[in-house]
Each structure stands twice: as C-alpha cells, then as structure tokens.
Amino acid sequence: MSAAAPIEALAPIDNRPDQDAFSISDLCAEFAVTPRALRFYEDEGLISPERRGTVRIYSHRDRARLAWILRGKRVGFSLAEIREMIDLYDIGDGRRVQRQVTLERCQDRIALLENQKRDIDAHITELQHFVELLQSSDTI
Known about the structure:
Distance between the termini: 62 Å
Helix content: 55-70%
Strand content: under 5%
Structural class: mainly alpha
Radius of gyration: 22 Å
Shape: elongated
C-alpha cells in the first residue's frame, strides 16, 4: 500500500467522485445505519459534518471515517480505539503510525478471538462428552 493511498484503503468503500457531499439519507442508505447512529458518532466527535441550518452535510472524509467506524465496530473495537486509529490519519506522517497502530490492534484482536475460539471449542467438546455420558447411562 503506498503512502499516498486514501483512508478508504483501510476501510474499503467505493469512490464517489460524482458527489461533493452526502446527506444523512445518503449515508444511512449506503451504510445501513440510522440517522440516530450518525448523530451519535457526531456527538462522540468521530465525524463532523458541516451544518447548514439544521441540515447536516457530510464530506468524503466523514464518509470514509464512517466506514472505519463501522468496520471497527464489526470486529469488536471500542469507540475509543476506533477514534484513536482514525485520528492518527491527521498526524501528517503519510499514515505510517496509523497503519502500524491499526495493524497491532488487529493482530491483538485476532489473538484474543483465537483464544476465545479455543475456549469455546473446549467447552463444546466437554459438553458433548457429558451428553454422551448421560445418554449412555442407565440411570438418569
């Protein structure tokens, strides 16, 4: 991945050069989220749409950040972790630190999930043995 790659490269979304801005309805439809969710992310400082009266106007940057937020949530990151990772985009180092921090967080998350999977598999095996024992027993 080149240093000049856009933020979308880490949370892939289709480019939308046909639009300069997006409405709340546009983003809700594209990402299957509610207006309430978008307002929540705004209140949390994760996205910052322009305001024209009571209308929110979302930029390409807001759209890309929303993709990051939703991907991060899907894989189990907290909003604080997501905020840290997407805010690193703005430090001006060609996204080197952002990629490194995100990579480390993802690797840590993979290790955690693999450990949880092993634990779950062990519990399932134990339960299966217990069920077999109960089913083969003459007394219940």
